[in-house]
Write a structure and sequence with these properties.
The chain is of the alpha+beta class. It has 3 domains: about 80 residues, no CATH class; about 110 residues, Beta-Lactamase (2-Layer Sandwich), CATH 3.30.450; about 70 residues, Orthogonal Bundle (Arc Repressor Mutant, subunit A). It is about 45% helix and about 20% strand. It is built from 13 helices and 10 strands. A 5-stranded antiparallel beta sheet has the order 5-4-10-9-8, with helices on both faces. The protein has a 3-stranded antiparallel beta sheet with strand order 1-2-3. The chain is elongated and about 80 Å long. The chain starts with a helix and ends in a 5-residue tail after the last helix.
């Protein structure tokens, strides 16, 4: 609700919520009913949209014992408005600078990295990311765009509807060789909990890794953690990532080809891949992005 009002009905002072919001809108009534359930009978607040794309909300509440706000009190609160806006802007700029520093720091780990806001806007990138995946940066709106429709759809699905924030693991997207660019994998890493303190305003990190075909299969525990594979699916994935065919992998694991095929279909579903080449590229890139040696 607050984000909608910030963009469609901007404020320039503290106002009473009853005077500011449109009570006929269903979600507004739900918000006000929630306030009343906590004993709030009156509220004075403001909504500030920052240049970084973030929205800051400040509100003063009163319960029945304190009584309603009168005009004199609202006037006193509004004397704080200029200081409030300056403090919010300075904090946003400091947070933006911190995100840039953290993303640049990823370069020292040899990780091409970009930080994204919740709406998919690119907040910061390092030189390695711009070198490897710079062509994916869309100047209009400063968002990522992959010129391969299936991968681009997966990217937007990962970033939309707070999917990245709800996920507890990395979402990895395999991208085939396009034009002059080698095959690569984009890893969508959700920013959660205290990580927001150092990646201020960020919704997710995107790490790009090229696929060079020289990697060994990633560790089994890594496969199970990243993609929620069963032990048998992880073993099959590991064999495929090492360069074995599905038939060879089935023989190594002592299972029938039909069983291996069933496992492979489930692995495709869990990794959002559709063929073995994309799967192998994805798996071989997974261990590098986390700096974990293959098992």
């Amino acid at each position: 609700m607050m984000t909608w009002h910030a963009y469609n009905k901007p404020m320039s002072r503290f106002e009473r919520t009853n005077d500011y919001v449109n009570k006929s809108l269903p979600y507004v009534q739900v918000y006000m009913d929630e306030d009343q359930s906590h004993g709030v009978i009156d509220e004075v607040g403001t909504i500030l949209k920052l240049p970084t794309g973030e929205v800051v909300v400040a509100a003063f509440d009163r319960n029945a014992e304190q009584g309603m706000f009168n005009d004199a009190v609202v006037g006193i609160i509004n004397q704080l408005y200029p200081d409030f806006t300056r403090a919010a802007l300075v904090a946003a700029r400091l947070g933006e600078k911190q995100v840039h520093n953290m993303v640049e720091g990823m370069a020292s780990l040899n990780l091409p990295c970009a930080a994204l806001a919740e709406n998919g806007r690119v907040l910061a990138t390092n030189a390695l990311f711009e070198c490897q995946a710079g062509s994916f940066l869309n100047a209009a709106g400063n968002k990522l765009y992959i010129p391969y429709a299936p991968a681009n759809a997966q990217l937007h699905m990962a970033l939309s509807c707070r999917c990245a924030a709800k996920a507890s693991s990395i979402r990895s997207i395999a991208i085939p060789s396009i034009r002059d660019h080698p095959a690569m994998v984009l890893h969508i890493i959700p920013i959660q909990a205290s990580a927001h303190d150092i990646f201020t305003g960020s919704h997710a990190l995107v790490v790009a890794t090229e696929v060079n075909g020289k990697n060994r299969g990633p560790a089994l525990d890594l496969l199970q953690a990243l993609f929620h594979m069963t032990p048998k699916e992880a073993h099959l994935s590991h064999c495929l990532a090492e360069g074995h065919s599905l038939k060879e992998s089935a023989a190594r694991l002592g299972i029938g080809f039909g069983t291996a095929r069933s496992y492979l279909l489930r692995i495709f579903e869990k990794t959002d891949t559709h063929h073995q080449t994309g799967l192998v590229n994805l798996l071989n890139s997974a261990s590098r992005v986390l700096g974990i040696a293959a098992g």
